[in-house]
Amino acid sequence: MDYILAGIAPELSECTERQDDLPGTAIAAVECQVDSNVVDSVGFYLFADDDDMLDAYFGRLASNGVAPDTNLRWTVANGPTYIGVLGQSDDISALMEWASDTPVGTRLWSCACQDAT
């Protein structure tokens, strides 16, 4: 979990360890609440390897009936970590705008950490 905490952008606050309902075989997770009318929360999930990360990502999308191109998630090199942004509605364009046009959205992950694995 220290790896995740080191990578979270300092603008995100109210971050807590998440232990329940983790995607796939995640080995650690942190969820941050966001002060936004567009975004509810941002989750950071650490996996043992890239294959586990991608399996969890696509499995979670499929189990929720979400097409891969209607979801806002990033994968992090040297993680293997993925970041999920939970919106307050199903307006993906609003999430994309938040992620590209707000200081916190453009800096969700700011870690220059070593590989977590």
- In total, the number of domains comes to 1
Derived from helix and strand composition plus strand pairing, the structural class reads: alpha+beta
The arrangement of helices and strands along the chain is HEEEHEEH
User: Count of DSSP E strands?
Assistant: 5
Order of strands in the sheet with most strands:
1-2-3-5-4
The largest pleated sheet is described as: 5 strands, antiparallel
Q: What is the mean pLDDT?
A: 81
- Based on Cα principal axes, name the global outline: globular
What would you say this structure looks like, in words?
The longest helix has 14 residues, at 50-63. The protein has helices at 2-7, 50-63, 92-101, and strands at residues 13-17, 28-33, 39-46, 73-76, 81-87. The protein has a five-stranded antiparallel β-sheet with strand order 1-2-3-5-4. The mean pLDDT is 81. 26% of the residues are buried. The radius of gyration is 13 Å and the shape is globular. It is of the alpha+beta class and 117 residues long. A hairpin with a 4-residue loop joins strand 4 and strand 5. The chain starts with a helix and ends in a 16-residue tail after the last helix. The chain has one domain (2-107). The protein contains three helices and five strands, in the order αβββαββα.
